[in-house]
Design a protein that fits this description.
Blueprint (H helix, E strand, L loop, with lengths): L1 H33 L2 H13 L3 H6 L10 H11 L4 E16 L2 E14 L4 E11 L2 E10 L4
Length: 146
């Protein structure tokens, strides 16, 4: 009887290990669907590719919108009019808190981007919604390893 229980326990653990990867992927997909910044990241990339600086700044958090001119110009120069054809969510972290300064929600998401010329790179972004407004406080094109 002990052997049957032990074997059942081992099989249960084995099955849970084999399904854990799929569970993690499904959870990341569900979080990405819950994130309000996913669609805004695509809009931001398109606005950068088309060099629409005012639209880019409208998607940034008010606390960083005025100090981002050089960074926006560098990213727009890299994109050089090339539009994204595929956006894949790689990593998601969403934190929500309520404190004395009000409610805050921060979404940290890493995307794998494929451009229309098949160039691939990653975007590491942080989207903040707080009492000052909402928008990206960090949006980095990552050309190396992630």
């Amino acid at each position: 009887m002990k052997k049957v229980i032990s074997l059942s326990f081992v099989l249960l653990i084995l099955v849970s290990f084999l399904t854990a990867c799929n569970f993690t992927q499904n959870l990341a997909g569900a979080l990405a669907d819950d994130a309000e910044s996913t669609k805004k990241a695509e809009e931001l990339l398109l606005a950068m590719a088309e060099a629409r600086d005012s639209d880019v700044k409208a998607l940034l958090h008010p606390t960083v919108a005025e100090t981002s001119d050089d960074a926006i110009a560098q990213m727009a120069e890299y994109l050089a009019g090339r539009k994204a054809t595929d956006t894949e969510v790689i990593n998601v972290s969403i934190n929500t808190s309520t404190g004395t300064s009000g409610k805050m929600r921060q979404e940290s998401i890493t995307y794998k981007i494929t451009l229309e010329d098949s160039t691939e790179f990653y975007v590491s972004s942080v989207y903040l919604s707080d009492g000052d407004g909402s928008g990206f406080i960090s949006f980095q094109l990552v050309l190396g390893l992630v």
